[in-house]
């Protein structure tokens, strides 16, 4: 069953509508990146999907980029290993693209009426696939009304969306793994 609780608001990515559970997951993920002190603590604070995404980016990781059986457990980093966002955060690939995910769940009739579709383009290969829905901020109330007519419960929370879509930190505030 598709989630009907939607968080919406203005972000650095423009107007976004994101399922509430996904919004909370992304915000919790960003908080964990900045607060976890060990790999065990980080793993306890994020979903398995997020853990695996960051696991393979770590300099501590000693396993295949994707195990044949999909099980990363044999390659877990020991839980007492120090954790720092400088070890895992790259801007080449992000764990989520809510501006693309929106095009996957937003009802087609709303997309046709209010959205302009575009996609990322770049000369390198680190470009996510999928349509980005570009929404006009001035249409926000109309989009909310249409979603609610279709049974969605919409709540504006710009702060929660920003917490989930923006990882704002100074790398100099955290150690690099070769400094530990």
In short:
This protein has 8 helices and 5 strands. With 180 residues, the protein is of the alpha+beta class. The protein has a 3-stranded mixed β-sheet.
Give an overview of the whole structure:
The protein has 8 helices and 5 strands. The protein is of the alpha+beta class. The protein has one domain. The strands form 2 sheets. It has a 3-stranded mixed β-sheet.
List the topology elements.
Blueprint: E1 5-11, E2 14-19, H1 20-35, H2 39-45, H3 48-55, H4 85-88, H5 98-105, H6 108-114, E3 115-118, E4 132-135, H7 140-149, E5 153-156, H8 158-165
Parallel strand pairs: 1-5
Antiparallel strand pairs: 1-2, 3-4
Helix pairs in contact: 1-8
Distance between the termini: 46 Å
Helix content: 25-40%
Strand content: 5-15%
Strand-pairing-aware structural class: alpha+beta
Q: Mean of residue pLDDT? A: 90
How would a crystallographer describe the biggest sheet? 3 strands, mixed
Assembly classification: single chain
Number of discrete domains: 1
Spatial order of strands in the largest sheet: 2-1-5
Poorly predicted sequence stretches spanning 5 or more consecutive residues: none
Name the overall outline. Answer: elongated
Work out the radius of gyration: 18 Å
């Amino acid at each position: 069953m598709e989630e009907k609780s939607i968080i919406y608001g203005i972000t650095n990515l423009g107007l976004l509508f994101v399922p509430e559970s996904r919004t909370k997951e992304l915000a919790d993920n960003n908080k964990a990146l900045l607060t976890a002190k060990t790999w065990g603590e980080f793993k306890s604070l994020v979903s398995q999907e997020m853990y695996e995404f960051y696991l393979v980016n770590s300099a501590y990781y000693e396993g295949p980029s994707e195990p044949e059986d999909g099980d990363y457990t044999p390659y877990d980093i020991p839980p007492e290993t120090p954790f720092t966002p400088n070890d895992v955060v790259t801007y080449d690939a992000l764990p989520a693209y809510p501006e693309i995910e929106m095009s996957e769940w937003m009802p087609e009739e709303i997309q046709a009426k209010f959205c302009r579709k575009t996609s990322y383009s770049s000369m390198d290969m680190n470009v996510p696939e999928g349509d980005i829905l570009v929404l006009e901020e001035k249409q926000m109330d109309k989009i909310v009304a249409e979603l609610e007519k279709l049974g969605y419960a919409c709540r504006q929370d710009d702060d929660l969306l920003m917490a989930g879509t923006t990882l704002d930190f100074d790398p100099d505030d955290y150690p690099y793994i070769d400094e530990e």
